[in-house]
Amino acid sequence: MTHDHEELLRRSEEAPAVAPEPALPRSPAVTVEALQRSAGNAAVARMIQAGGLMRQPAAPEAVCSPADQAKLDELMSTTYTREDFHPDTGAGLFDAVYAPGDGLLTITLGIAFEFLNGDPADPTWVASVGPDNVAKYGPEKFAWTAEEILNWKQNAITTVTGIWQRQYTFFTTKACWADTLPPVNVNIEIVERPATGEGKAHFVTSVTKWPTEPGIEESVTPPGAGADQSTARFHEQGSDPGGIESPDVNDFNTTTTERAKYNEVNTDNPGTIRFPQNASEPSAADKTALQKFGQTLGKPYMPPFPVTLTGHSSSEGDEALNMRLSEDRARTVSNEIVGAGAPNQPAVDPKGEEGAAPTAEWRRVDITVGSFRSSQTTIGHEFGHMFGLRDQYPTADDGSRPVGTPVKHSALAERLIPGQTPILARDNEDIMSAGGVVKPYHYVTFLEVLGTMTDTTNQWDIRPAVQGPGDFPVPTDDGTGTAVV
Ligand SMILES: [Zn+2]
Fold it and tell me: Is the pLDDT of residue 473 over 60?
């Protein structure tokens, strides 16, 4: 491939190239936010670790008062335990053990699983398959085998533990404790316990087998005040062949037209942004419209709807340069939207002069909004209820939890987590909404038990757990001389 001077003289859309305006200087915080949106949190963490963006001020020499020192000594010489903890969210029930010297908080849920066979005459299931199809499913499709029970139980416990444990670390906000008191990791233990008698389970949990998704609600009943036991109900769908091995995953699809509030995205979508010849800078009026659209996408009750920006150019000028021009146009639009608060980086789809005529109407970017899709391992969500969290997906607009209203664990999170903003009912990727993501505030009942049993409430903050060297899988030799990770 060669480039000569002639190449440099060629033009996109046959107009003189204009030097881009210099970028405005940005503050470090704005840079971090923009980088988080464009490159993801991992990149930001790496940059901060490398000292590229912000430097931590040197920690002042922290000297404990006699009272603080006495409390620290108590913490470091005690193992704290709490049985049947009732979080202040009005739901949940679990045991906790905190060993400060080890930096470990272990949350234990005692479960009595009761495996039930589905009822082929159940009206909800019959309606879900249609009465004419009931005969297709023999009685064995409703009946657990001993092997299925074992496999399902093992997979369910592994799944729930993987979703919930060691996602975040608590650390003391008391400066004079920081050097001595280790950050607190959270271990989750799900143990089988008897339904009655000594050491009985926190939740008696039925698991019913069905040949197909029955459409029956799965639920956890909040334990009454002072109660030491409650109940839960799961409904699991078998697969053919293979029976039931793993807990069900539910898929969700949320559209912008589903609710009046979500439809604001469509109302505020400018749809098409037009550009002058050989230019990728929108007009002032279009910038204002794009900023409003970005703000709407970023409203706290809005699902993270995916946005696609399709860039075009007219067919005049050089094809490769027109491709780049169409991409520049889409990226300029993207920067306006993200800068105004859109939670996700839009997908940029440059088309260049593909299908275009040599006319002004092709100098444009088309903006389309897709539906928000998510999937969830249902029992991961249900175990969240056992840990004391409440639902975050919105009910009907005239229901008990309309879009944009604080959810029932919001007040506790705002009280215990520094800087916590209200947690609002919305469809999103959160484990207590429609997805599988555990957020820092989902650790709030663990933080509550930690503060309560040690009498250190409001002396903690939370950050993502750092995986130490010991947490990486150790390569093993499989006998062929090749390390298997
Ligand atoms: Zn729920």
Answer: no
Nearest CA among 374, 371, 368, 372 for reference residue 337:
368
Write the DSSP string, 239-266.
BTTTB--S--EEEEEE-TTSSTTTTHHH
C-alpha Rg value of the chain to the nearest Å: 28
83 C-alpha vs ligand 1 centroid, how far in Å?
24
Measured distance CA(173)–CA(462) in Å, rounded:
10
Distance 389 CA to ligand 1 centre (A): 9
Residue ranges per structural domain of the chain: 25-56, 74-253+375-471, 256-370
Q: What is the pLDDT of residue 239?
A: 72
Tell me, in angstroms, the distance from the centre of ligand 1 to residue 382's CA.
6
CATH fold group of domain 256-370: 60s Ribosomal Protein L30; Chain: A; (3.30.1330)
Q: DSSP of 163-197, one letter per residue?
A: HHTTSEEEEE--GGGTTTS--EEEEEEEEE--SSS
Cα 217 to middle of ligand 1, angstroms = 9
CA of 385 to the centre of ligand 1 (A): 7
Distance between Cα 431 and ligand 1 center (Å)? 9
Identify the pLDDT of residue 184.
97
Ligand 1 centre distance from Cα of residue 221 (Å): 10
Please give the model's pTM, rounded to 2 decimal places. Answer: 0.83
Alpha-carbon span 359 to 314, nearest angstrom: 6
